Amino acid sequence: MATLNFYFGMDMRFFEDSGTVFHDSISGGMLTTATDTLYQIDEGTAGRDSFYGTGLSAPSQNMPFSGTVNRWAYSYDDGMGGLSIGWDFYDFSTDAMTFSNHVLNDQVGVLFSDYVMNGADEVNGSGFDDYLLGYGGNDILNGNDGNDTLDGGTGADDMLGGSGDDTYLLDDDSDVVTEFFDAGNDTVQLRFEPFVGFYILGENVENVRNLSGAAVHLAGNDLDNQLVGSGNGGEELYGADGDDYLNGGAGGNDSMYGGAGDDIFIVDSATDFVSDNRDSFGTRGDGIDEVRSSVTFSLQGSDRFDIENLTLTGTAAINGFGNAIVNTLTGNAAANLLNGGAGADIMRGGGGDDIYYADNGGDRAIETSAAGGTDTVRSSASFTLGNFVENLQLTGAEIVNGIGNGLDNRISGNNQVNVLSGNAGADVLNGNGGNDALYGGNGDDTIDGGTGHDWIEGGVGRDLMTGGAGADIFAFNSGEFGGLSAGACDRIVDFSRAQGDQIRLNTIDANSANGATSNEAFTFIGSDGFHGVAGELRYIQNNGATYVMGDTNGDGAADFMLRLEGTHNLVAGDFLL
């Protein structure tokens, strides 16, 4: 076997059987049939050196894939010229060569790329990022240091990457990849369909990508693996130990098994199958696992009951469903429906008008921006709205409560007894069925008790209140009446003595002159005018409405006012004084 050694910035010397030595420019047959010939570049003077010969087949990425070199040249410039190689191609050759790159005197930043001929070749890379190409024959490729690409071509090739993040291009079942422990993050690119239809990563190799186009089943090892299918569908990917990334590609009908570790599954078809219950060795999976899906996906089912997290990807309006354990569901930028199922789940909507289903008091619906759409939580458990979530609907048949936030919320109860609190904002509260308690909080709220005997308290702001069917109590505290004009005060839409409705004023001190600790009751004086006595309560009828007014300081003027829609002949029994 002949050997050619490249040395950076050297003169060339050519040794024939006769021992003749040439300097700087050499020509003649590069390969002989009689004896092996060594071509060596030794240290010498700087300048451009050239070497010409015949008999060497040297294909490259930019040249034909076979042929006999008629003219080969190496040159080096001691300025910034770097390395240049040129070829002229003739007929096919099968001579065997070894190429070795070497860099002396700590020359850094020069990239050497080796391109090797047909035949049983041995290629030794440099300390840089090499591309080693064996082409035909049973080759030996040694990458040494650097992030190397090793391509043995056809034949049974032995490839050793060395340290660095190496890439192996495999074309044959007989190709052998060898990596040492902790020698970089390495990738196998599978360009053929294995005879058994299955490829298992060897020791110390992290990743495999199926480029064959065939449905090849891929299996990992105990490292953190990336297993990527062809994208044509129908592939099986098996993780093992380690935190694995499994992606069958866009073809659909892929089956992915995570195994132990924190695994990530990429789903892009409704026919993809995901399981974390067993790996390539039959071991049940564990770890914190995640499905990233561009289609509607559910974590429910016996094969994925222990997968924790689901992230929706892409731009389509798709949905995500959790399982019985604690899940984290994350939506995309479109309108998503997220249902965590049992367990105290975290649901993140992202953009779009999202709908969250909650069934656990520990469930959380998280939005991070006011620009994230108008979002709704439908909960069968008591729930408090988080920031940037607008609406809450209580569901189910249990007694549960709902609390709003600082936004303009829409909160509705179920048909059981509910406590609904709007907090700040102009809220809309609807008790629906049941004997509910509804608190508007701050803001101009709209409150409807629905059926049942409801407690309705508008709070601060100009509130619009409807009791609905049943004996309702409209409750007021000091400072909770709105303004002192017909257009600014609180309004009760459907006050009905016949249904047993009452207006509660007994928490207000009727005589403010007696100090903060006093809580005197009002004296109802009907439709009479004020007499300049603190603590009087009266009503008037005007333009089809009835106004209730109270004087708390005895100046003969109203200090608060309340409007009842319709004309009512009120009596003291209509109030809790």
UniProtKB/TrEMBL annotation:
Location (main, coarse): secreted
Pfam families assigned: HemolysinCabind
Cellular localisation: Secreted
Name this polypeptide is given: Calcium-binding protein
GO molecular function, one term: calcium ion binding
Matching SUPFAM superfamilies: beta-Roll
Glycosyltransferase as UniProt keyword: no
Keyword match Electron transport: no
Keywords: Secreted
GO CC, alphabetical: extracellular region
InterPro entries found in the cross-reference section: Hemolysin-typ_Ca-bd_CS, Hemolysn_Ca-bd, RTX_toxin/Mannuronan_C5-epim, Serralysin-like_metalloprot_C
